[in-house]
Design a protein that fits this description.
Strand content: under 5%
Number of strands: 2
Structural class: mainly alpha
Helix content: 55-70%
Number of domains: 2
Length: about 210
């Protein structure tokens, strides 16, 4: 399959019935770990997109739902997540976007690493990619992230919330305007830090002035 990656992605998109489709899906399941290992994120991202698009089609073969679950598990392995988090520092924006897609597919197992990457990141592009991944994962990623934010400026979190609410989820994913606004809003406040989370949820400390 490695020599015919795009062919198999096309075949996934055209699949309309179980039958031979299961053999194709099993082939994809076998080869994705190798694709991830060698950093062929573009192909993996295409497979993820094709799978998610096809599973939403009315009457779609059940193998697509099975494949989506398998792909999520493969992306969520410890070694894969560590590799993906390291590759978020790539200078290639397209590659970072592909990494974000795969981390989003990994879901909750990637959250702790994403929060750490945001806290330790000194590059706006990396933080933007990290935050994009957390947004795609959803509340299971954003809630612990927000719980670890403390600021003497309540305006920081208010700006964060406004930017999130303003985001048009139907907009093309390559539109980074809202994410940039969020990161810039947070960056404006020098006192904003990420802190260890106690067993109970920590609330932001409002400004006294």
């Amino acid at each position: 399959m490695l020599a015919r990656e795009d062919e198999h992605v096309t075949a996934l998109r055209r699949l309309t019935a179980d039958g031979d489709g299961r053999e194709l899906v099993e082939t994809v399941q076998r080869v994705v770990p190798e694709l991830l290992r060698r950093g062929a994120y573009g192909t993996v991202a295409k497979i993820l997109r094709a799978t998610n698009e096809q599973r939403q089609v009315p009457g779609a073969p059940t193998v697509f739902s099975e494949l989506a679950g398998q792909l999520s598990q493969l992306a969520a392995s410890k070694d894969t997540i560590e590799q993906l988090l390291a590759d978020l520092h790539s200078s290639d924006k397209d590659r970072r976007t592909q990494v974000v897609e795969i981390l989003a597919a990994a879901g909750e197992p990637a959250v702790a690493g994403l929060i750490k990457a945001y806290a330790n990141g000194d590059n706006q592009s990396v933080r933007l990619s990290v935050f994009d991944a957390m947004k795609r994962i959803g509340p299971s990623a954003l809630d612990p992230f927000l719980a670890r934010i403390t600021s003497s400026h309540s305006e920081a979190l208010e700006a964060f919330g406004r930017a999130l609410r303003a985001d048009d989820l139907t907009a093309p994913r390559e539109n980074d305007t809202t994410l940039l606004q969020v990161c810039q809003a947070l960056a404006r406040f020098a006192s904003l830090v990420l802190v260890p989370t106690p067993h109970h949820a920590r609330r932001p400390v409002a400004s006294g002035g």
